[in-house]
Amino acid sequence: METISWEDFQRVELRVGTIIKVDDFPEARKPAFILQVDFGEEVGLRKSSAQITDLYSKDELLGRQVMAVVNFPPKQIGPMMSECLVTGFHREDGAVVLVAPDSQVPNGVRLI
């Protein structure tokens, strides 16, 4: 495992946001949703493609808080531009489990 400096870690903007919209993403190579996430006043709304259809329904995702990297450059994924990376862990079966705070926190709060 490669080690990084504290300064390297501080450059990554991991922030909490609330999913406010979930759409199907039929053009994706693997089953995915397009999420719109509210990161509060400072960061605003961001879109992300997320391959999380194995464990989550659209209804379960609405209103859920997630942790995402918000300072990657935008990335074209098929016909949509992904503006953040929603974080999760792969299980042995390949399903993704989302990373989220265990209590509600304000949108935009940064992981420190």
Characteristics:
two-stranded antiparallel ribbon; mainly beta; 112 residues
Describe this protein's structure:
With 112 residues, this protein is mainly beta. It has a single domain, classed as OB fold (Dihydrolipoamide Acetyltransferase, E2P) (Beta Barrel), CATH 2.40.50. Helix content is 12%, strand content 38%. The chain has three helices and nine strands; from the N terminus they run αββαβαββββββ. The strands form three sheets. Strands 3-2-1-4-7 form a five-stranded antiparallel sheet. Strands 5-6 form a two-stranded antiparallel ribbon. The protein has a two-stranded antiparallel sheet with strand order 8-9. Strand 5 and strand 6 form a beta hairpin. It is globular. The model has no long low-confidence stretch (mean pLDDT 96).
Summarize it.
12% of the residues lie in helices and 38% in strands. With 112 residues, the protein is mainly beta. It has one domain: OB fold (Dihydrolipoamide Acetyltransferase, E2P), CATH 2.40.50.140.
Order of helices and strands: HEEHEHEEEEEE
Taking the sheet with the most strands, its summary is:
5 strands, antiparallel
CATH topology: OB fold (Dihydrolipoamide Acetyltransferase, E2P)
Helical stretch count? Answer: 3
Rounded mean pLDDT score = 96
Radius of gyration: 14 Å
Tell me the structural class. Answer: mainly beta
What is the class in the CATH system?
Answer: Mainly Beta
C-alpha termini separation: 21 Å
**Number of domains in the coordinates?**
1
How would you name the CATH homologous superfamily? Nucleic acid-binding proteins
Number of strands: 9
Assign the CATH architecture. Answer: Beta Barrel
Proportion of helical residues: 10-25%
Strands in their spatial order, largest beta sheet: 3-2-1-4-7
Morphology call: globular
